[in-house]
Amino acid sequence: MFEIERRECEEIRNLKGWRLIYGRRKVGKTYLATRCLEYDDYYLISRTLNIIHENDEIPLDDGINKIISLLKEGKKIILDEFQRLPEKYLDLLATVYPNGTLILLASSLGVLSKVIDRNSPLLGYVIPYKMGIIKFSDALASVKDPYKALLFRDPWIIEHASDWSDIERNPQSFYYITKGLIGEIFQEEDRKLTQTYEAILLEVAEGMWNSSMISAKLQAGMDINPSKASSYLDTLFKVGLIKKIRVYKGGKGSEWYHDLDSPIMSVTFYAEAKYKVSEKGNKIVDLTYPISKEIQFSIGEMLAEYYNAELAYIPQGDIDVVLLKKGKPFIAYEVKNKFTEKDARKAIERIKDFGISRAGLVGVLEDPPNSEDSIGPERLIEIANEIKKREHNKGSVSLW
């Protein structure tokens, strides 16, 4: 297993006192916490509401009492799956503060209310930190390959695939894994993965990016209007399954472009939406479209980070990456594996015809023809390393 350096390590290490590290399942919270933080003991709350400590499973009351005793002694304790802890125990934990260091890990975005709600006994005691999937720049700086970096943004996939070709050869199995993970996420959020939520995720994976598009596709079978679709999308955003990218000149009702937050989820759900892989088995499928879309947005996210800008989407003009500063485009890019001279000329003209004066080309696999802002594969890696160095200088590098 190779290592991907992650900036979150130093960030969570620099948090002082009691802290809550939260985010959806399988983004690496436990791995990073147990490798980046100094701690004396680790406890896990099981689904049966017992405490797992080393190889033993003990009653919840006994486990919490043991944790309280250790905190009073000044110990540093990790308590994993904190979202499962019944609220009656929060008062008990609060009585120990500020003794020791309590590090809470939670696989739920809704858990935040347990520590910042005005009625929470932990309010003001615990600093929350949200963790997502691996930053594209972190992955690229480590693996030196844009497409592998895209795949490995979800850390769980590292043990199961070495390239996107593994997903194309085995789409059914990877779809079942990602669907199961989504089901776990909903379970931790005390929700049910309904047919409607699943249908919306499939539509988003296939490129239906706003509520109007989704409702038009699903209205006949599910009676979903744009308002209902928007509400479902908001829920999916809150549980960490969908990301929002600002739309530039999108018009009312199209302020945000919606996409699945995880590249592997986006690609496998596209495989199901397009090819019904759950029914047809592991037949080799063509996943060029969703992989291309995800590499485009991941590169866009990295360039936005590099320029301290905001990534945006333009519905018109077929422009791949648009970066905004102060709400206006300051640069745009066409992203392709390889460019011909004709491709490059047309791309630059299209961007400038849209009114964006600064136009560039990103060649993912080989250097594009020279332009005022050409970026080839080596330069992409350099940019990732420059971001890494900049973050390191701020005190934030870690290992996956």
Task: Kindly report the spatial arrangement of strands forming the biggest sheet.
Answer: 4-3-2-5-6-1-7
CATH superfamily of the largest domain: P-loop containing nucleotide triphosphate hydrolases
**How does CATH name the architecture of the largest domain?**
3-Layer(aba) Sandwich
Give the strand content: 15-25%
Structural commentary:
This protein has helices at 8-14, 29-36, 60-72, 90-94, 113-116, 136-143, 146-151, 164-169, 171-188, 195-205, 211-222, 226-238, 263-275, 277-280, 288-307, 341-353, 377-393; strands spanning 19-22, 41-45, 50-53, 56-59, 76-80, 101-106, 127-130, 242-247, 256-260, 310-313, 321-325, 328-336, 359-363, 374-375. The chain has 400 residues and is α/β, with parallel strands linked by helices. The protein folds into 3 domains: 7-130, P-loop containing nucleotide triphosphate hydrolases (Rossmann fold, 3-Layer(aba) Sandwich); 163-285, Orthogonal Bundle (Arc Repressor Mutant, subunit A); 295-398, 3-Layer(aba) Sandwich (Trna Endonuclease, Chain: A, domain 1). The strands form 2 sheets. Strands 4-3-2-5-6-1-7 form a 7-stranded mixed β-sheet, with helices on both faces. Strands 9-8-10-11-12-13-14 form a 7-stranded mixed β-sheet, sandwiched between helices. A hairpin with a 4-residue loop joins strand 2 (41-45) and strand 3 (50-53). Helix 1 (8-14) crosses helix 2, helix 9 (171-188) packs across helix 13 and helix 10 packs across helix 11 (211-222). The relative contact order is 0.12. The model is unreliable at 396-400 (pLDDT under 50).
